[in-house]
């Protein structure tokens, strides 16, 4: 037992040290301490009912901020995928479909998810879009309301 | 003198090591390649203070990978099996509490490869892995202590 414990402690400490070292030099490295969550202001949120009205009228552009794998597993019908972590790669294609005064609704999933908030900020700062709002906890809220959804990757 | 264990037992033990260790190596490596995504998955469990989330996301995949490699190679078996059993115990608690609280989240167990949501099948899979890992730990630790006893009895008879 003592031998196993000693090995386990050495293994854990050495591996953790390796992880910290690689993270420090990796281009995909993340900060050691997670930055505080972005606070979403009330005016940046769109209520579910209003989002559904805009979806029905076809006047808003829905953007899914999650990863392509999550998007493919299920998303709001007619929504396009703009993964916030691959913004530069996906944005040129999306921007061709948008105009500066487009009504844009961004969403991700879960009340801890801030991908949609980050996407809203990027669209406002780099895309100069002014009418961007977040559908908070969007995928879950939309799905639980029984609104139209679909599956499959971004064409 | 060493007493050889039955061939079937040794084969089963080897197969179990390959499966459990292999799964840990795979799960660790896919997370190493996307630490930001794994950090989000860890945060979604709402178990850790946010100051610890990234630290865990950076270090945990490496512990999984190294423990898995050692287990597959049959090196430091008591230690690697203990680490894997302990990690599986922690994962079971994390998944169990998330299911009880009704959190609608991804497992994050295999990075973005596993896109679906966590459900009771995830829990069942992890229970099986926990049992396999505990068996391997028990086998590795008893093999050591039996060898120790054998050595002692050989010495005393000399």
Notable traits:
heterodimer, A: 155 residues, alpha/beta, Oxidized Rhodanese, domain 1, 2 domains, four-stranded parallel beta sheet, two-stranded antiparallel ribbon, 6 helices, 6 strands, 44% helix, B: 158 residues, mainly alpha, 77% helix, globular
What is the beta-strand fraction of chain A? 5-15%
CATH superfamily placement of the largest domain in chain A: Rhodanese-like domain
**CATH fold assignment of the largest domain in chain A:** Oxidized Rhodanese, domain 1
Shape of chain A: elongated
For the residues shown, what is the average pLDDT of chain B?
A: 85
Calculate Rg of chain A over CA atoms. 20 Å
Biggest beta sheet attributes of chain A: 4 strands, parallel
The spatial strand order of the largest sheet of chain A comes to 3-1-4-5
- Strand content of chain B is under 5%
What would your notes on this structure say?
Chain A folds into two domains: 1-35; 42-150, Rhodanese-like domain (Oxidized Rhodanese, domain 1, 3-Layer(aba) Sandwich). In chain A, strands 3-1-4-5 form a four-stranded parallel sheet, with helices on both faces. The longest helix of chain A has 24 residues, at 2-25. Chain A is built from six helices and six strands, in the order ααβαββαβαβαβ. Chain A is elongated. Chain A has helices at residues 2-25, 48-57, 68-73, 87-95, 115-126, 138-144; strands at residues 60-64, 75-76, 80-81, 103-107, 132-134, 149-150. With 158 residues, chain B is an all-alpha fold. Chain B has five helices and no strands. Chain B has helices at residues 7-32, 35-44, 50-73, 77-100, 120-157. The radius of gyration of chain B is 18 Å and the shape is globular. The mean pLDDT of chain B is 85. The chains are: A alpha/beta (155), B mainly alpha (158). The A-B interface holds A 1, 3-8, 10-12, 14-16, 18-20, 22-23, 26, 28-34, 36-37, 67, 69-70, 72-73, 85, 109-110, 112-113, 115, 140 and B 32-37, 39-40, 43-44, 46, 50-51, 53-55, 57-63, 65-67, 70, 76, 78-83, 86, 103-106, 112-113, 115-116, 137, 140-141, 144.
């Amino acid at each position: 037992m003592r031998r196993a414990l000693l090995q386990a402690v050495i293994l854990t400490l050495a591996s953790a040290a390796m992880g910290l070292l690689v993270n420090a030099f990796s281009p995909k490295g993340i900060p050691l301490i997670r930055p505080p969550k972005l606070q979403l202001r009330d005016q940046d949120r769109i209520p579910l009912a209003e989002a559904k009205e805009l979806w029905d009228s076809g006047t808003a552009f829905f953007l899914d901020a999650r990863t392509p794998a999550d998007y493919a597993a299920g998303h709001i019908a007619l929504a396009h995928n703009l993964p916030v972590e691959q913004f530069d790669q996906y944005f040129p294609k999306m921007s061709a479909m948008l105009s500066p005064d487009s009504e844009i609704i961004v969403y991700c999933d879960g009340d801890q998810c801030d991908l949609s908030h980050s996407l809203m900020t990027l669209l406002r700062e780099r895309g100069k879009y002014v009418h961007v709002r977040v559908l908070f906890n969007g995928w879950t809220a939309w799905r639980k309301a029984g609104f139209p959804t679909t599956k499959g990757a971004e064409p | 003198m060493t007493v050889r264990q039955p061939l079937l037992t040794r084969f089963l033990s080897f197969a179990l090591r390959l499966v459990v260790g292999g799964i840990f190596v795979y799960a660790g490596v896919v997370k190493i390649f996307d630490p930001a995504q794994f950090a989000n998955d860890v945060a979604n469990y709402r178990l850790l203070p946010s100051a610890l989330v990234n630290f865990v996301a950076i270090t945990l995949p490496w512990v999984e990978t190294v423990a898995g490699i050692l287990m597959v190679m049959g090196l430091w078996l008591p230690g690697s099996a203990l680490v894997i059993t302990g990690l599986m115990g922690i994962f079971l608690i994390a998944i169990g509490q998330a299911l009880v609280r009704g959190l609608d989240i991804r497992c994050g167990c295999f990075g973005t490869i596993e896109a679906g949501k966590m459900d009771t099948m995830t829990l069942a899979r992890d229970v099986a892995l926990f049992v396999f890992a505990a068996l391997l730990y028990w086998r590795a630790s008893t093999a050591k202590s039996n060898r120790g006893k054998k050595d002692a009895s050989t010495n005393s008879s000399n």
